[in-house]
């Protein structure tokens, strides 16, 4: 929301603002809570990356965790500046991330191994170029929702074919955080005029960032478990310090003559 405080970044050029007063705490940060709320996503993605590398999962999972970090950093730049270019650094990685999820979800059953990554790569590059030239606010949201919906049937298939109780709990946490985060996003976006009259702003969009940080972590961990099962790596879900779940695998020993 607009504020009379002067800003380092100049006038707002992004397509929309969120339900938070601008430049309240610093002339360098437009939406303070919407900016710092990306920190949990970066930390969780880093933890996932370390786990993936330490246990030598396929590179696709390392790239996925890195994409989560890139998205969160792009969101930091967008909400800190409310500039059009920085908004693209948030929205374009959102699409790239979903293309990665589509690849990871569908690639195990794809017979033509080079076709899918080639198509998704070209699709992602084409979108980035188009998005840098044309502003399409509603079109972007519809496009993003469509990509998300493409992932849901496959996630559900993995869920019903998974017998491990702890892994199923990860999937349930994924859907729960997605639902709660979506409620926060919708409330912040469409009820701002009412929220602005409240004594305390619940910072719905910032909560959306936090929920989606955990959402991505739970989704990635669940997919790592499913992939480890496909590779017969005897995966199990364990908790770091009894709190944060991660996948521990035991790969078959290779015998050398």
TrEMBL record:
Zn(2+) binds at residues 79, 205, 209. Ca(2+) binds at residues 18, 20, 22, 31. The chain crosses the membrane at residues 32-51, 63-82, 119-136, 171-188, 208-226. GO terms for molecular function: hydrolase activity, acting on carbon-nitrogen (but not peptide) bonds, in linear amides; metal ion binding. GO terms for cellular component: membrane. GO terms for biological process: autophagy; ceramide metabolic process; defense response to other organism; response to salt stress. Keywords: Calcium, Hydrolase, Membrane, Metal-binding, Transmembrane, Transmembrane helix, Zinc. It is a multi-pass membrane protein. It is found in: Membrane. This is Alkaline ceramidase 3-like protein. It comes from Ambrosia artemisiifolia.
